[in-house]
Amino acid sequence: MSEELRSVILFDTRTQQKRPFEPQQPGKVLMYVCGVTVYDLTHIGHARVFVFFDVVQRFFRHLGYDLNFVRNHTDVDDKILKRADEKGVDPLELSARYIEELDRDMQALGVERATSEPKVSEHIDDIIEMNKALVDKGHAYEVDGDVYYRVESFEEYGKLSRRKLDDMEAGRSGRVDETKQKEHPFDFALWKKSDDDQLGWDSPWGRGRPGWHIECSVMSTKYLGPTLDIHGGGRDLIFPHHENEIAQSEAASGEAPFANYWMHVGMVNVAEKSEDGEDIVRKMSKSLGNFWTTRDVLGGYHPEAIRYFMHTTLYRKPITYAVENLEEATRRVQYLYTALKRIDETLQRAEYDSDENLPPDSRLADGFTDLVEGFMDRYEAALADDFNTPNALALIAEVARAINEATESDSAPSDALAHTLVLLRKHLVDAGSVLGLLERDPKTALDEIRDLRLKTMELDPKVIDEKVAARVQAREDKDWERADELRDELAEMGVEIMDSQQGTTWRLK
Ligand SMILES: [Zn+2]
Q1: Is pLDDT above 70 for 453?
Q2: How far is the CA of 33 from the centre of ligand 1 (A)?
Q3: Which domains does the chain have, with CATH numbers?
């Protein structure tokens, strides 16, 4: 590699420290992220994990790294079997359907595809092979058609979640399944016996199906090798899922560590009213009924506003889902697109609509040199510091503010200002693309946001247009009282009208 790539600092869950990221091969990143068990629509907790690792993917590529990113689909699992049974459908048909639904939601959110998206059902032979290797090495044993991992055979069990088997055993509650004849209560299933009418495959231990954890060890090794540069997922997966992945992978390959850096995304909380009417924040969960699917949220908010909202909090921290937060994010995205639109309008007045017909004068407008020349370095530095998206958004806002100030005048810009605006526009778009923002044409995005807001405010644009037209007529008729009445009615609906020489337009407040 001829040029030095910018280095990135990551917070590693295992060592609980921020460390400079050193990939095994310079310039190459091997990343595995746990996907979703596909038996229902995704919720915004899943969406947060997908959007975050989408930013990781986009940023490494932006910096010039060669990224190989694997994200799996858990399409064989007891939750899927149960749901398929309830619905009377084939389990693999059910999971295939929810993979499609997942793809639809993530595509709507602008989440880019991973390099590989393998499924459990297509890796059964590989899973049986790894299970056999674990049994042969004494790390696993069979009991009546089930195969269990022997946690006591792996000395470092607990090293990711910083637990010790002895302490866990002392503190365990009824959460451990003790109906099976396991050697140790924390031994976990690598293979589960299937009844004749259940989904299953033939194996050395009889007909059965994989346990949950083994798939990630198998698929990550198959596509990326025994040692990952980065392993990611939601915080809720640290224990037992990721702990078990380490135990399986390191015992099977004899190589450690399984992953050099562990990155975990925080949970989503929900702002609610308590029974006494107080504002409270609770963990989002199905059992509490405060549950938001990605589909629900996309029905009410613009995809880039949802992403903006997620970027306002550092990925490791919990984030609070609240209507006000989504509305504020919507206003911020509107503000950024308005800045782009104003650049376009200003450049049109100077007849410079792109950098191809830039003014020959390459000077920058006074006072902009630092912003124009220093922006990308500061922006990359913010994200290279453990993906600090709140700081990255603050830098983007600084550019948008400068654009708004520079485009206040209605007159044609000087050559130096036109040049400056072209460069600032490029900065905003390049910076936005790393976060999955500003990926649309400004007019399209502003219209989409307006239409969604009209829908959630239950307003019909036709009714607004009619009232606006009636007010224009009233003003022409010099019926000022009626004109004011109509303006007040519109204001009541949340619509603001703006009169200018070009005519009367309206916007949502
Ligand atoms: Zn996993």
Answers
A1: yes
A2: 7
A3: 9-266 (3.40.50.620), 272-445 (1.20.120.640), 457-508 (no CATH)
